[in-house]
Design goal:
Length: 302
């Protein structure tokens, strides 16, 4: 049954609903803009290359992001689809992170087993809590001063469960960052031992991996902190600043999942393509020089 009220005490809730919808549209436009911006690279580095697990993960995350941007504009009507998409994308990003760390640790089987076990534990805990949160969340229709709002009421302990989910993902991301930094330090130390181009190539790949990882991790930390600090205060707060931060956090959340997530793959492939292009150009120049030398030598002999 719908709750109808013209009480001015509901006005902050109305303001938050309207403000939130505007920021949702902005978040969707940011994701779409990034897709248009990188579409050329996507064609060259993803669609035209040999299909692998990373190719599938990139495409699914990228286009779930576009679909997510449309769904989330509908707001709480699609709340279950939104929760499901968040869980699926978080799992896929975890798989990407495991693949990157596995490659950085030179395909160590022990490291792979360790990462898979840790991430399985995190995923099972978060999946179970998400299912519980969805189950206890009760939809309510509010008609406040003529404005229709779909509100999802829930028990007080739900916020604690949501905080546990974020804490689990924060622990996983911190572990992944520490492992990445550690192996990168080892690789850069190896550069002092190698004077060849092999050592330089290893260092270049490590630099690209660390740069994209740090950027992704920074965005994740910002989203997590805002989620853990702002959301609990939002329940009883009428502050416009708190409401703006909560709404703006949705843009950061979309950027972290659907822009920086796919770029974890795109940045590595772009760097690899540049190395291949430079190598081909160098080989072509050496071939031209060799042909000129042969021609001069033959002419002098004649």
């Amino acid at each position: 049954m719908a709750i109808v009220s013209n009480d001015p005490s509901w006005w902050p809730t109305i303001t938050l609903g309207i403000l939130y919808s505007y920021w949702m549209v902005a978040a969707g436009l940011v994701v779409l803009y990034d897709w248009v911006l990188t579409f050329g690279q996507e064609i060259e580095l993803i669609w035209r290359k040999r299909w692998t697990l990373m190719t599938v993960l990139y495409i699914v995350i990228r286009y779930i992001g576009i679909l997510y941007s449309v769904i989330i504009v509908l707001g709480d009507i699609m709340i279950y689809a939104i929760h499901g998409a968040n869980l699926v994308v978080a799992t896929m990003l975890g798989v990407i992170m495991i693949a990157r760390l596995h490659a950085m640790y030179r395909r160590s089987r022990r490291m792979l087993i360790f990462l898979v076990i840790i991430f399985l534990i995190v995923s099972i805990i978060c999946g179970a809590i998400t299912a519980i949160v969805i189950k206890v969340t009760v939809p309510e229709e509010l008609i406040l001063s003529g404005v229709y709002i779909c509100y999802f009421g829930s028990e007080g302990i739900v916020q604690l469960w949501v905080s546990i989910v974020w804490a689990c993902y924060i622990s996983w991301e911190c572990l992944a960052l520490c492992l990445s930094v550690w192996v990168a330090i080892k690789h850069f130390r190896d550069l002092r031992r190698f004077g060849s181009s092999t050592g330089s190539t290893i260092g270049d790949y490590s630099r690209v991996l660390i740069q994209s990882h740090v950027l992704y991790f920074t965005s994740f930390v910002c989203v997590s902190c805002l989620q853990l600090v702002i959301v609990p205060k939002l329940v009883n707060s009428k502050s416009m600043g708190i409401q703006i931060l909560f709404s703006a956090n949705q843009i950061l959340f979309g950027v972290q999942l659907f822009i920086l997530g796919p770029r974890l793959i795109l940045s590595v492939r772009e760097h690899h393509a540049e190395l291949v292009a430079d190598f081909d150009e160098e080989t072509s120049m050496n071939s031209i020089v060799f042909q000129e030398r042969v021609h001069v030598s033959t002419s002098s002999t004649v």
